User: Which sequence fits this backbone?
């Protein structure tokens, strides 16, 4: 059944005939831009962090279950797979953290100009890398 | 548009509903606002949690128990759990609304996702309470 929202996706060709415009998100149609790339990475990191919450729950449940289950959980985090996952999640966390702040700034009406939004995108990427490195330096220093 | 009858549009709202302005904005704003409030709360909570956990990397379970046994830590942990799981639920809901087009499937996946998020969140809160009390 046609939806009322379809009215918004009807456009005209140069010869005047009507055409149904593609609905967003159509990643294969739009040219990649800083705005769309930072937006989709925000979503991907958000999904990754949702999965990462399972590890946080495991860590808490294991701690509440006793020293043995806690050692098992800790052993997984310290294993090669665990460390790779943790590294990915640290990156995802800081990206989502800083880009989330960027979104909040947009929400209060700041930073919409293309130049500013490109600058803040670069700040987000730089801050993500810096915070990830800091976390791993601290984490490894405490752990080893 | 009027002279072209090839494309027809069906209104899903009743005329009364249109006049009263009933639509997604009634509950949509609630979802949007919930995301904003939880993200603001998660800024300090995340910083606190990440650096607290990092300072205990590799420590035995007894150290974690001692840490959570402080009421302030337990309260902040529960606040972090509630805010992050609520934020997760709202975010995943938006992703599903965007990408799952078939209504029945969307409903089922949404319920599965919310059930998992709720159960994980409850397990996390219960663990904190068990460690704290």
Assistant:
């Amino acid at each position: 059944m046609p939806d009322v929202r379809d009215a918004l996706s009807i456009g005209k060709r140069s010869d005047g005939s009507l055409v149904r415009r593609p609905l967003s998100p159509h990643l294969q149609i739009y040219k990649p831009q800083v705005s769309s790339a930072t937006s989709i990475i925000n979503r991907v990191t958000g999904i990754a962090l949702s999965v990462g919450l399972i590890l946080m729950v495991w860590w808490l449940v294991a701690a509440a279950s006793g020293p043995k289950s806690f050692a098992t959980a800790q052993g997984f985090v310290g294993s090669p797979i665990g460390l790779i996952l943790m590294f990915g999640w640290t990156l995802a966390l800081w990206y989502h953290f800083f880009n989330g702040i960027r979104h909040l700034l947009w929400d209060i009406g700041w930073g919409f100009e293309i130049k500013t939004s490109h600058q803040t995108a670069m700040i987000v990427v730089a801050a993500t890398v810096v915070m990830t490195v800091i976390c791993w330096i601290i984490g490894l220093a405490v752990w080893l | 548009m009027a002279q072209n009858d090839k494309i027809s549009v069906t209104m899903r709202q009743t005329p009364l509903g249109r006049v009263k302005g009933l639509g997604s904005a009634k509950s949509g704003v609630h979802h949007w606002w919930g995301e904003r409030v939880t993200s603001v709360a998660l800024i300090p909570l995340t910083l606190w949690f990440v650096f607290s956990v990092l300072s205990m990397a590799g420590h035995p379970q007894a150290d974690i128990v001692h840490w959570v046994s402080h009421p302030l830590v337990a309260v902040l942990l529960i606040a972090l759990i509630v805010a992050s799981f609520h934020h997760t639920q709202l975010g995943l809901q938006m992703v599903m609304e965007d990408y799952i087009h078939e209504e029945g499937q969307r409903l089922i996946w949404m319920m599965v996702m919310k059930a998992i998020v709720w159960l994980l969140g409850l397990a996390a809160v219960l663990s904190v309470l068990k460690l704290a009390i």
Q: What stands out?
A: The mean pLDDT of chain A is 91. Chain A touches chain B at residues 1-4, 6-7, 10, 18, 20, 25, 43, 46-47, 49-50, 53-54, 56-57, 60-64, 66-67, 70-71, 74, 78, 93, 97, 100-101, 103-104, 107, 135, 138-140, 142-144 (CB under 8 Å). DSSP finds four helices and two strands in chain A.
